[in-house]
Amino acid sequence: MKVFIALAVCKILSFVGKLIGKGSSLPGQVALKICPDALGRLKLPKTVIAVTGSNGKTSTAELIAQSLNKQGLRVGWNHEGSNQTEGVATLLFRFATLGGIVKCDAIVMECDERYARNIFEAVKPSALLVTNLCRDQQTRNGHHEFVQDCIKAAIEAAGKKTKLVLNADDPYVSELGTRSSKLGVGGSELGNDVIWFGLGKEVAKTTNLSVLHDPAPHNPCKYDDGAFCPMCKGRMTYKYRIAGHFGAFKCNSCGFGRQMPEFEVVNLDLGSGALTITINATPAIPDSEFKIRSSLCFPSLVGAYNLAAAIAVASTAAVSARDAASALDKYEMKGGRTVCFSVGGREGVLLISKHENPLAYNQSLAWAVMQKKPCTVIVFVDAISRKYYTSETSWLWDIDFDILAGDTVRNVVLAGRYASELASRFAMSLVNQQKIGIVEDAAMLSEYVKGSTSGEIYALTCFSDKAKLARELRI
Amino acid sequence: MIRILHIYHDLMSLYGDWANAAVLVMELNSCGVDAVIDKKSVGDELDFESYDFVYIGSGTERSLVACISDIMRHKASLIGRIEEGMHVLATGNSHEIFGMAVTDAKGGRHEALGLLNFETIQGGGRITGDCVCNTAFLQEKLIGFINRASKGQVGDIQRPFVHELGSGANDETNTEGIQYENVLGTYMTGPVLVRNPPLLKYFAGKLIGARAEEIAERSIPFFTFQEDAYRKALGELAMRMAAAN
Description:
Number of helices of chain B: 7
Largest sheet of chain B: 6 strands, mixed
Structural class of chain B: alpha/beta
Number of strands of chain A: 17
Mean pLDDT of chain B: 94
Number of domains of chain A: 2
CATH architecture of the largest domain in chain A: 3-Layer(aba) Sandwich
CATH topology of chain B: Rossmann fold
CATH superfamily of the largest domain in chain A: Mur-like, catalytic domain
CATH topology of the largest domain in chain A: UDP-N-acetylmuramoyl-L-alanine:D-glutamate ligase
Oligomer: heterodimer
CATH class of the largest domain in chain A: Alpha Beta
Low-confidence stretches of chain B: none
Number of domains of chain B: 1
Largest interface: A-B, 46 and 55 residues
Radius of gyration of chain A: 22 Å
Strand content of chain A: 15-25%
Strand content of chain B: 25-35%
Largest sheet of chain A: 9 strands, mixed
Helix content of chain A: 25-40%
CATH class of chain B: Alpha Beta
Radius of gyration of chain B: 17 Å
Number of strands of chain B: 14
Structural class of chain A: alpha/beta
Low-confidence stretches of chain A: 180-188, 213-221
CATH superfamily of chain B: Class I glutamine amidotransferase (GATase) domain
Distance between the termini of chain A: 51 Å
Number of helices of chain A: 17
Distance between the termini of chain B: 48 Å
C-alpha cells in the first residue's frame, strides 16, 4: 500500500513539476520519504544501464538512450541530469505502474559517482558504464582515487551479474576491471564480466590535439595522474598518450597495463567540425568497421570516448555495433549545438567547460588553438559553487593555460569575480602578459572586448556561469 | 642563491601544488635573490645538504603511503638537516609523514619519520571546506581550503594553525598542522603561498633575512593580483562567517 501511495504521489508531483518547469529530483525524494524501500520493490526491465564517471555521463547516457531507442525500444532515462538517488527514483517511478512494474524496455540512468552505491543497493543494473576518472569538483569529490573507491563499493553493491563497460585507456577505470588495489580498500576479486572500449594508437598519431598528448609538455611542474600505477604505485610508462592519463599505460613494477578493447576507435578526424570515428568491433570479424559522423557540441576526444562507450554499452542489450553506430550517425545531441555569437561584428564561439575540471578546460583551450585563426580567448570565472563563494581555486593551477602561448592568440581576457585569481594564475604561465586584459566587472566585458581585442572570440566558461556571460555578451 | 627542492613533485601533486615552489621563486627574485627549483621523486638519489628549502604537496591517501615508504630511505639525512634549520613546507596530507605512523584504510600501519609525536588514521569520508585561520607567527589571517580523509590525526601536539572557519586535525580540535624548528605543515591544500601573501613573505623573510620587506621590488603586476585575490577571499569568507553567527 505504501508503495502505491509513494508512486501515486511521485506521479502527481512529476506532473505538477512539468507544468511549472521545475524539480527533477523532488518527486522521487518525497516518494522515498513515504516508502523508503520503494526502489527495491520495483519490477525492472531486463536492461537497466547505469552510467557513472567524471566526464561525459549526461552525453553518453543520451547516446545510449538514442542507440536503444532507434531499435524500437521504449527507453526511460534521466535526461535532466538529476543523478542522485532521488533523481533516479523520480525516473523509475515515472515509468512505473501503481503496482510497481516499470513499463519500458530499457532504463538508462546516469548515476552520481559518489552515490551510485546507494542506488545499486536497491536497483541492480544489467550493465554499468564507467566513462573515466579525472580530477573533477575536488571540493566535493576529494580526489579521483576516493571516487574510484566509491565506485568499487558501488560495483560490490550491484553484484557480480552486472556487466562492466570500462574505459581501457584510463588506468583508474581499468583497475576496477582487474583486481582491487593492493593498497586500497577491498582486495578481493570483483569477478564481473568486463567489456572494454578505448581509442587506438592511430588516434594518438592522427589527432591534432597534440597539446593534450603529453601532460604539460611545456612546463614539467604540472600534474600527471598517469605517472604512478593505481594498483601498486610503481612508475608507469605509456606507449602513447591520448590525453592526460589516457593512453597505452603499463606499470614498470607490477605489469598492470591497458587491456585490448573490444570496441576501439581506430580513426578520428577532429578537424572537420564534425567528428568521424571508426569502431572496430572484435577485429577478427571482417566488415566490423563503422563510421559515425556526429555533431557534438564541439569535436573532442571525450566526445569520441562517449560514442565508443555508447556502442559498447548497446552491445550488452544485444544491439549490434552496426545498429548502434547507425543510430548514432548524424545524431544531434540535445542542446549540443555549438553556441555562436557576435560582438562588435566579430564571430564568437561559446566553449562550455566545467569549472574544477582541468581536462574540460584543456580541451576547450586546445580547440581554440586548433582553429589556427587570430583570436581572443575569454576566460570567465564568476561563481565556482552555485551555493557560496569558495576560495578553492587550486584547479586553475592544474589547467594547462600554456596552451594559449601561441601566436594565433592575440588577446586573453580574464573576467568575472575571480579575475584577480585568474590574473595571478596567468602571471605564472607562458602567455605573454602584454596580451592579457582583466575585467572584473562582467558588465564591462562587452565594451572591453569590442575596444581592446581582436580576432575571433572564444569564450570559456562553466554551465554555472553561462547565463551571466551570455547576458553580458548578448548571446 | 636559494636552492628549493620540490620533492615528490609528481606523486604528491593533487591540487596545483607546483605553484607553491614557483611563487616562492618569484618572491625571492623580486627581492633580488636568485632561486632555483630542483625536482626529485620516488627512487631518486638526493642530498638534502644541497637545499635551503624543501616543499612537498598533497597526494591521495595511497600516494602518501608510497611517499612514506620512499622517504624512509632518507630519514637520517632529512632529520639531520631539519635539526640544522633547513626550511620545510608540507601542504595537505603530506605533513603526516613527519608523524610516528600512518594507518591506511585497511588497517595497515606504516611507520613514518617520527619527528613529532602524532599519528594519522586514513579512511572515512572526506572533510572538505574553506578555512580561515590564525597563527602565532603572523599577524594576518590565512585563508585556504582543507580536503582530507575524515578520520584525521591523534596525538597531543601543538598545532600552529587555529581555524575560525574550517576544521582541525580531528573532531576534537579546531587546530591543525605541525611546526618544529623550521618545518611547517598544514592540511590546507593547493597553492597556499599564492593565496596567502603574508605566508609567502614570511618564508622569503626566513630564507633571506629581515631585509626581504625593504628590498622587495614590486614592479611586476603579479603581486597586486595576488594581494587583491587574498583580500577578496578574506572579505567573502568573513561575510560567510558573519552570516553563520
